[in-house]
User: What shape does this take?
Amino acid sequence: MATSDPHGRHDWHSPQYVEDWIASSAGRDDERRIILRRVVSLIPREADAAIRVLDVGAGYGALSAQVLERFPQAQLVCQDFSEPMFAQARKRLAWASERVSFTHSDLSDPGWSRALAGPFDAVVSAIAIHNVRYPERIRAIYSEIFDVVAPGGCFLNCDLIFVSGPAAAAAYDNARGLEDWVQGADGDASRPHAATTERSAHEREPITLEQQLCWLREGGFQEVECFWKEMRHAIIGGFRPTDG
Assistant: This one.
């Protein structure tokens, strides 16, 4: 693709941009680690299982690191289209040595999965697939992921979920402005909340939770669930039947 982001928000092909983006996110590492471990904890295998795992949009390897820590016998493939991210991931995951491999492909290309040597016992992803931006392409990606999941395997996706309409967006805005009060900290529960970009984000990318769950079912996954949700972050996924 010609640009790292069709909406021009990120430049994942720039080493300096990627380095700065990772540095700016460092303050949320503890919070992010908990969410990523939630994803990994949902893989229904024993810790010593010799499973194969694919991390879609692996970026700098944050989710991959948690998979490799939880499953010491796992073989993991990192998929991404950003070489600067891969450079960071290779450093971050060097301790796992030959247990990790890297596949360069672009999710915006319908042939992205042909470069993969599947099937995989688990496919995971974290805060990545939404960057494709186009709903119909994301819908197709779920079907393409299903094709590389082994029978009995699972797909778990932690990502941003856009709200269903303006009333819901206003509720999120209101709750965000009152977060200190909700947490029990000193704060003025009567103060006005600050407006956010939630409404415009919904208008640009109207991909709701219900739509995503529907797309997983259309792609072939069964026992589709929203396993966890907090505000606009959710973990969704499903399982490939053992007979297909």
Q: What stands out?
A: The first strand starts at residue 52 and ends at 56. The chain has nine helices and seven strands.
